[in-house]
Write a structure and sequence with these properties.
heterodimer; A: 123 residues; alpha/beta; five-stranded parallel β-sheet; B: 580 residues; alpha+beta; Beta-Lactamase; Heat Shock Protein 90; 3 domains; five-stranded antiparallel β-sheet; 19% strand
């Protein structure tokens, strides 16, 4: 059995950090959760992550800020943005910035799985 | 010779008739003359006519004074002859009994005797007496006696008339005197009367002036009462006597002739307002205090009046409690206030909706976040139950989280509904800390999106205030969103928002929102609160003016001040419960 792909979740909302990893594990992924962009950057997960599920709006360093920082560090980790703000009009804008997927809360488990799988394809 | 004798006799008789005519003509001369003049003339005439040596008259004075005596002597006699001596001789002669009088007396003026003829004036001698004397031997001849008696009669008549005339004159003089006296008295009385009348007229004029002055004052007062829709009243408790001014009657729409009593006036108050009014009046009367009432007065036509009554407690001269007060018809004011309140409320609602419009993203986030949690947890739960063997413990945990997120979503909906509602003012106890937490919960993601760092400095054991929770939250939300907006163009320093609650001036609770934004110009501080004034291109100027009116209706105030460093601080303070 191949080592399970690591999906990292960065979200300041605690309920997301509780629920989303459980579901992803049910899908068979390895999961690590972080409450801020800074915490993720400081961890060793940065070199092992196959897919980054990243909240856009966070206090301090935002999701976009982290994306820019990773690009600067040449860390090409496929990113699936999640956000509770905005509507469908936001999606093209986010994908244009280089994200693999954009999930608008609330999203279904199918949408989540499709987005994660797409990200893993890229990686 | 006989012929000569006859001729002599004829001449004598002719002379006698002439004398008689002269004597008879005397009264015509005497007309209007007084007694002395009459007898003077008589004596002169008799001496000349009868060639007497003397003539004497004595008149009794009717007034009881001494008699008037007068003597005339023949012109041939020496003027040195003294009338008094003649009078003395005649006195003695007259004092004798008339029957014993001798016809001759010794001549008082010379030698020899004198024949004397006394003549009575009047039927007796009530008027007086005339005495004629002559030394002639033939005196008195028969015709001479006749002439003397006629003359005496004539004189008596003339004297009688003179006496009457004199009496008349005297009476007339007396009358004149009395009339003059009376006239003088009357004139004095008249003067006195005139003075009294003048005084009375002056007093009346003064009274009229005072009255006019009073009427004018009363008119002014009445006009003032009418213009200000304010009537006055007095209420004496000792005899329960209530007195109204004309305007008070007009306000109550009652005929001014109607007597009013305290009980009926109280009963006229709107039933809903009556218990409060009754309690206030009873309390004030018990302690002898002033009181103030505001109540509705139903009118016969079905309309309502709003009346404001202020009564001042005083004591009358007997120390009895008495109220003097004013009744003002504040209906128009109240209706305007109600209309204003409605507009204000609508404006507040518009502001609320507008603010919430700006919060749409935040609202979406607040609702989407728990929805997302519910779906994720529910999906996980189903998968755990479907596993072989089913992960019961995991399923239970995810189901619990789903329920928690469901409640969280429900709370958000509840808060939103409260903020969207336009149910007017609801007074309740408000914990400003709790209200602040809710506002921050609603706006946190909006603030997050704006990159705003929020620091809470909420005082512990903050006193509870009374007011409309939603409206106060509306104010807090406005201040928070304004602060966030003020920092949107700031890149060179942290966008920090400090929301702080504390006690203020011992009787108030203060809430401040401090930002590090563009700040405010001191000259613009007050204009910030004008409706529709805004420094922002897409701002909602109505926010601060509505916020201030909300705070003021909570008996508080809202103000802005520049920070020592960058940015500004907006604060409001309102009295806490027990301070109102």
């Amino acid at each position: 059995m191949p080592p399970r792909s690591l999906v990292s979740v960065v979200d300041d909302d605690e309920s997301v950090r509780e629920s989303l990893p459980d579901l992803l594990r049910e899908f068979g992924f390895a999961v690590e959760a972080f409450s801020s962009a800074e915490e993720f950057l400081a961890s060793d997960a940065i070199g092992k992550t196959h897919c980054l599920i990243l909240d856009i709006a966070m206090p301090g360093m935002t999701g976009y800020d982290l994306q820019t920082e990773l690009a600067r560090r040449r860390r090409e980790i496929p990113i699936v943005f999640i956000t509770a703000h905005g509507d469908e009009s936001l999606r093209p804008h986010v994908l244009e910035r280089g994200a693999v997927g954009c999930l608008l809360k609330p999203f279904s488990e199918t949408a989540l799985l499709d987005a994660v799988n797409a990200a893993l394809q890229v990686s | 010779m006989e012929h000569t004798a006859d001729a002599t006799e004829i001449r004598r008789l002719q002379g006698c008739i002439n004398d008689l005519i002269s004597v008879l003509a005397l009264p015509a001369m005497w007309g209007g003359q007084e007694a002395e003049q009459i007898v003077g003339t008589l004596l002169d005439v008799l001496i000349g006519m009868l060639r007497l040596d003397f003539a004497y008259v004595r008149l009794k004075d009717p007034a009881g004074e001494g008699p008037i005596e007068m003597v005339r002597l023949a012109q041939s006699r020496s003027p040195s002859a003294c009338p008094r001596e003649i009078g003395q001789v005649l006195h003695d002669w007259l004092a004798d009994d008339p029957r014993k009088r001798p016809p001759l007396v010794r001549n008082p003026l010379g030698d020899g005797d004198v024949a004397i003829v006394p003549l009575r004036l009047g039927l007796q001698d009530e008027i007086g007496l005339i005495v004629a004397g002559s030394q002639r031997a033939d005196f008195p001849a028969q015709t001479e006696r006749l002439l003397l008696s006629v003359a005496a009669n004539q004189a008596a008549i003339g004297l009688q008339e003179a006496r009457l005339l004199s009496e008349q004159k005297r009476v007339a003089r007396e009358l004149d005197l009395r009339v003059a006296q009376r006239t003088k008295e009357l004139a004095a009385t008249n003067e006195e009367l005139k003075r009294e009348i003048a005084e009375r007229e002056w007093a009346e004029t003064k009274l009229r002036q005072d009255d006019a002055q009073l009427k004018r004052s009363e008119a002014f007062l009445a006009e003032g009462q009418r213009l200000s829709s304010t009537g006055s009243f007095s209420w004496s408790l000792a005899n329960d006597q209530l007195t109204w001014s004309e305007q008070t009657y007009r306000i109550y729409e009652i005929d001014p002739a109607t007597p009013v009593a305290f009980l009926s006036v109280m009963n006229a108050i709107h039933p809903e307002d009556m218990p409060m009014c009754r309690e206030k009046v009873q309390g004030a009367v018990r302690d002898g205090r002033d009181f103030e009432l505001e109540f509705r007065l139903p009118l016969p036509g079905g309309s309502l009046k709003y009346l404001h009554v202020v009564a001042h407690a005083t004591r009358d001269q007997d120390g009895q409690l008495e109220y003097i007060g004013a009744v003002q018809d504040v209906t128009e004011r109240r209706l305007s206030e109600d209309a204003l309140e409605k507009v204000r409320s609508e404006l507040a609602h518009v502001a609320r909706v507008t603010t919430l419009g700006a919060l749409t993203a935040s609202i979406a986030h607040e609702v989407n976040q728990p929805l997302s949690g519910i779906i994720t947890n529910a999906s996980t739960c189903l998968r755990m139950l479907a596993a072989d063997p089913p992960n019961i413990a995991g399923a239970r945990e995810t189901a619990r989280r789903a329920i928690r997120d469901g409640n969280r979503a429900a709370d958000v909906i509840k808060r939103l509904r409260a903020l969207f509602s336009n149910n007017g003012t609801a007074i309740e106890s408000v914990d400003l800390n709790e209200a602040t937490r809710e506002v921050l919960a609603l706006s946190s993601s909006e603030l997050q999106r704006g990159g705003v760092l929020v620091r809470r400095e909420l005082a512990e054991e903050l006193p509870i205030v009374t007011g409309d929770r939603v409206q106060l939250q509306q104010v807090i939300l406005n201040l928070v969103l304004n602060a966030s907006e003020a920092m949107s163009q700031v890149y060179d320093r942290p966008r920090q928002l400090v929301i702080r609650t504390d006690r203020h001036n011992s009787d108030r609770v203060r809430l401040s929102v401090q930002d590090t934004g563009v700040g405010i110009e001191p000259s613009n501080v007050e204009r910030l609160f004008d409706a529709f004034y805004t420094t922002k291109h897409d701002g909602m100027g109505v926010g601060l003016s509505v916020s201030r009116s909300i705070v003021e209706r909570h008996h508080g105030r809202l103000w802005a001040e520049p920070n020592d460093g960058p940015g500004a601080t907006f604060s409001f303070s309102i009295p806490w419960v027990g301070q109102l």
